[in-house]
Write a sequence for this structure.
């Protein structure tokens, strides 16, 4: 199978290549794609070197699958061209997520809505993915009314330049080119651009995408997204109001039985998830599961995942595997 990775030289793109290797995805020919300034570079895959090509060259090579992580404007311009050439596109940008004609997929939650006719498939926002992995089994049994979430998002979510900026600041640099303020020894309650309603676009993504993925527009989600000086791994404090009462042990059992979710919840032994636990792993980790004593039918939890893997690259490859397992790409 010819597989194109668009944005192959970026953080998410390089992680996609690694996960394609780890999952033994049936790639007969890799087509790495990047911007014009990167054309001609080499990327390593399965012990071989592949030369980066332009999008036009990649389309002419007729890949069966294209994994996109090249930004929204590139996806809007290029994804339809790949699709018109008969290529399935899994896009990691925000370009197609809220398009009514495109599916927004977390395979463990709503993979079943995909059909053979879907040629452009959207990969959700990293923070949304890890949250719905926990919310979905709870919603199925108890019904969710409202979610209040605060995120603690690592700098790798912004890209390689942000990681470098954090480390440069740690070494004494006073330049702030990526973020409006120093990120080392600081937190910035501002991810993406502010909207007219006072929320940032990242916060609205979490609200709108959650309802679309879970297929229920009645779920109310309000978010505050925060950048923290951590290199990898996003964390979330989540408060969930349910339709009816629950038993904490049942919630833990539901989550323990959810594919792709790992419960770490042993406060007497300081057992709870942290970004260090999630680094390099594909699972979503959840802990600090407890009843909210301030109002009925409400619980709190703490969710952590590797934002470059399950929050982006792994989820995209899982979508591709879903398509492959059904014979829709070959």
């Amino acid at each position: 199978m010819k597989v194109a990775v668009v944005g192959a030289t970026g953080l998410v793109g390089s992680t996609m290549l690694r996960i394609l290797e780890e999952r033994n995805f049936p790639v007969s020919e890799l087509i790495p794609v990047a911007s014009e300034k990167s054309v001609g570079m080499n990327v390593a895959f399965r012990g071989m070197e592949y030369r980066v090509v332009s999008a036009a060259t990649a389309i002419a090579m007729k890949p069966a699958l294209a994994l996109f992580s090249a930004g929204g404007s590139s996806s809007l311009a290029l994804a339809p061209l790949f699709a018109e050439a008969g290529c399935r596109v899994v896009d990691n940008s925000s370009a197609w997520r809220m398009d009514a004609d495109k599916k927004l997929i977390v395979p463990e939650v709503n993979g079943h809505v995909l059909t053979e006719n879907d040629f452009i498939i959207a990969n959700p926002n990293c923070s949304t993915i890890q949250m719905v992995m926990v919310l979905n089994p709870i919603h199925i049994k108890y019904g969710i009314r409202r979610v209040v979430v605060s995120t603690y998002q690592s700098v790798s979510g912004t890209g390689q330049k942000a990681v470098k900026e954090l480390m440069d600041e740690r070494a004494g640099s006073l330049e702030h080119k990526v973020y409006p303020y120093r990120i080392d020894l600081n937190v910035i309650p501002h991810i993406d651009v502010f909207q007219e309603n006072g929320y940032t676009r990242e916060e609205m993504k979490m609200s709108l995408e959650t309802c679309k993925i879970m297929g229920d527009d009645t779920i109310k989600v309000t978010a505050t997204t925060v950048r923290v000086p951590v290199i990898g791994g996003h964390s979330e404090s989540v408060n969930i109001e349910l339709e009816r009462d629950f038993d904490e042990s049942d919630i833990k059992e539901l989550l323990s039985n959810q594919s792709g979710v790992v419960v770490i919840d042993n406060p007497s032994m300081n057992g709870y998830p942290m970004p260090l636990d999630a680094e390099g792993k594909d699972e979503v980790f959840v802990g600090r599961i407890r009843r909210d004593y301030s109002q009925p039918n409400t619980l709190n939890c703490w969710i952590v995942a590797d934002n470059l893997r399950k929050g982006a690259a792994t989820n995209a490859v899982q979508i591709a595997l879903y398509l492959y397992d059904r014979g829709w790409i070959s």
